[in-house]
């Protein structure tokens, strides 16, 4: 593939990604508007909202992951491992307060553990993906 | 920052993570996908840092730097053959981090707005306890998987009496503790819960043998996602829920693919000890090992392959152990220079983690378009002159198709028996992981090449250069 073609393809992909993310964002704002609208009437509990998100995300995950080519299953594990460390969000809030107590220490440990994973996971995935080359 | 804005930024991060997985649908888009993943993570961390309760930036930066440095060094230094244990080790960290976050939440729920100590909202508490349990199981389970893959403990299944009874009892105890914790809000029950689930994770993975590790590693991958998901529910954070669900379903799908490729049920893999369901008679195995096999030298193999029109290479875990992928590639280069059509065939469970062989071949600069999956190559074996099996066994055993009594009956195999000639690089005549003798070894058109995979490839390279 010539570099020009590659760039074109890449731009296409990027554009479609942008379109997709715009769509998702608009859907989300729609959803949150609806949620606000209905909150008064049915008081959808946070659990139900979370469950809705969970079920939809499982469906997205299902279809996206079946599309992953088997050759890249190892990098897939490295990447999913890295992104599951998004749990660092909880750790940051725990370690956030200025005072130091048990919770802050736990938060700090979790930050270190998750950071190992985030950096390690993405770098190992990148190393693997760099090696997959086409025939010259 | 307003909560709406941060929710939107979290949403953007979620979309980035979805795009990261989507990128992996093809090698050309995969690197871009990885960039999406990194951007998503930066967004997630950046947004959280701007949350009103987060003030101790020094400590946080220190934690990020320490963890980041460790992760970077490990990731840059790790040998590609050691990937499965690295991934297992990383999973254990996610599990432990989930437990730490859950503890932090339990002792300071007001930081997350879910109540006060001793008076946490009941739904949040249930989610927190489940997240903790899954996290703890992931932690010790991954540690055992790591130890087995690294060779620190025997890869053989460790089975003992009453094992399943014990696990079931512990499982029931976990449920009891969950109820006690949620009704009394006493910290002591959370600590006991953590201790019991740590033990449970340990016991669950111990009986599972080495070659079932692809399933285990995928399963733990899935668990680490569900742990994140559980914590996400507690913190009412959609980003954690979405990401956890993505990772959880990804791991579950990989486990399913691996089980299917071994024709085993997920339950039987988890219960451990291969053949637990067919112990009454591993028919067709052993007993007849005194039959004669044809064995050959590196020179014979070189001669056969050089004069062949087409060669298919079937790599297995033995290639990884011997680190033979680079020498193998040299051998293939010499063959290709002689006009031989060479391709590689990968069985889904070859190696110790999903896609293990593909990464090793890629490391040896084998172009990915020469590496074919089982379904793509199986019909070509009929018209193949020579199949070169290096470090694989069970996945080529025709008994899986012909012998209904065999423990591996029904497992999809690479149909190498249909080729003109089959060369097996193997250290000895021992049976494969399933404990079944491979009928193929005794056929007239099979030649055994006894020796270490790497040394055998070196010998073949040498004679190819002389021929």
From TrEMBL, chain A:
Q: Name one Pfam family in it.
A: PNTB_4TM
Broadest EC class assigned to this enzyme: translocase
Membrane topology note = Multi-pass membrane protein
Q: Where is it predominantly found?
A: membrane
Recorded catalytic reaction(s): these are: NAD(+) + NADPH + H(+)(in) = NADH + NADP(+) + H(+)(out)
User: For the NAD(P) transhydrogenase alpha subunit C-terminal domain, which residue ranges apply?
Assistant: 51-134
List, in alphabetical order, the Gene Ontology terms for molecular function in this entry.
NADP binding; proton-translocating NAD(P)+ transhydrogenase activity
GO aspect biological process, one term: NADPH regeneration
| Location in or out of the cell | Cell inner membrane
- Protein name per the record: proton-translocating NAD(P)(+) transhydrogenase
Name its species: Kiloniella spongiae
The organism's taxonomy opens as: Bacteria, Pseudomonadati, Pseudomonadota, Alphaproteobacteria, Rhodospirillales
């Amino acid at each position: 593939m010539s570099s020009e073609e590659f760039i074109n393809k890449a731009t296409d992909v990027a554009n479609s990604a942008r379109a997709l993310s715009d769509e998702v964002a608009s859907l989300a704002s729609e959803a949150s508007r609806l949620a606000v609208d209905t909150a008064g009437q049915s008081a959808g509990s946070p659990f139900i909202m979370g469950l809705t998100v969970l079920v939809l995300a499982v469906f997205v995950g299902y279809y996206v992951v079946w599309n992953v080519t088997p050759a890249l299953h190892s990098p897939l594990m490295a990447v999913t491992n890295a992104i599951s460390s998004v749990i660092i969000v909880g750790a940051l809030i725990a370690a956030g307060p200025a005072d130091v107590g048990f919770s802050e220490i736990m938060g700090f440990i979790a930050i270190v553990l998750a950071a190992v994973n985030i950096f390690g996971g993405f770098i190992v995935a990148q190393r693997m993906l760099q090696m997959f080359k086409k025939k010259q | 920052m307003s909560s709406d804005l941060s929710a939107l930024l979290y949403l953007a991060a979620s979309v980035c993570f979805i795009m990261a997985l989507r990128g992996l649908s093809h090698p050309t888009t995969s690197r871009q996908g990885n960039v999406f993943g990194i951007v998503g993570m930066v967004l997630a961390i950046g947004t959280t840092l701007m949350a009103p309760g987060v003030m101790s930036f020094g400590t946080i930066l220190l934690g990020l730097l320490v963890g980041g440095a460790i992760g970077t060094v490990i990731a840059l230094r790790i040998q590609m053959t050691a990937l499965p244990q690295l991934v297992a080790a990383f999973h254990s960290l996610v599990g432990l981090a989930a437990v730490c976050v859950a503890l932090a939440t339990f002792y300071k729920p007001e930081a997350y707005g879910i109540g006060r100590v001793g008076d946490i909202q009941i739904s949040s508490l249930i989610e927190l306890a489940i997240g903790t349990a899954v996290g703890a199981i992931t932690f010790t389970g991954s540690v055992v998987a790591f130890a087995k893959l690294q060779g620190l403990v025997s890869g053989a299944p460790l089975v003992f009496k009453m094992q399943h009874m014990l696990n079931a009892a512990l499982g029931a105890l976990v449920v009891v503790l969950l109820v006690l914790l949620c009704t009394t809000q006493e910290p002591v029950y959370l600590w006991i819960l953590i201790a019991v689930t740590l033990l449970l994770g340990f016991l669950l993975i111990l009986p599972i043998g080495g070659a079932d590790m692809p399933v285990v590693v995928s399963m733990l991958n899935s668990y680490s996602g569900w742990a994140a998901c559980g914590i996400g529910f507690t913190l009412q954070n959609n980003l954690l829920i979405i990401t956890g669900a993505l990772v959880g379903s990804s791991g579950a799908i990989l486990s399913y693919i691996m089980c299917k490729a071994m024709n085993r049920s997920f339950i039987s893999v988890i219960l451990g000890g291969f053949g637990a369901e067919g112990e009454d008679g591993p028919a067709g195995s052993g007993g007849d090992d005194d039959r004669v096999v044809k064995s050959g030298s590196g020179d014979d193999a070189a001669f056969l392959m050089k004069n062949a029109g087409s060669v298919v290479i079937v790599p297995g875990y033995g290639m990884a152990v011997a680190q033979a992928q680079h020498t193998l590639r040299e051998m293939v280069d010499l063959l290709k220079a002689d006009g031989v059509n060479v391709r590689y065939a990968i069985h889904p469970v070859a190696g110790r983690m999903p896609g293990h062989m593909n990464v090793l071949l890629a490391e040896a600069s084998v172009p990915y378009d020469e590496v074919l999956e089982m379904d793509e190559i199986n019909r070509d074996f009929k018209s193949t002159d020579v199949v070169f099996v290096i470090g694989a066994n069970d996945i080529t055993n025709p008994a899986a198709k012909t012998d209904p009594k065999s423990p591996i009956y029904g497992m999809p195999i690479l149909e190498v028996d249909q080729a003109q000639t089959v060369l097996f690089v193997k250290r000895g005549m021992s049976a494969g992981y399933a404990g079944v003798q491979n009928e193929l070894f005794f056929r007239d058109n099979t030649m055994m090449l006894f020796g270490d995979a790497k040394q055998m490839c070196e010998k073949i390279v040498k004679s190819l250069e002389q021929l």
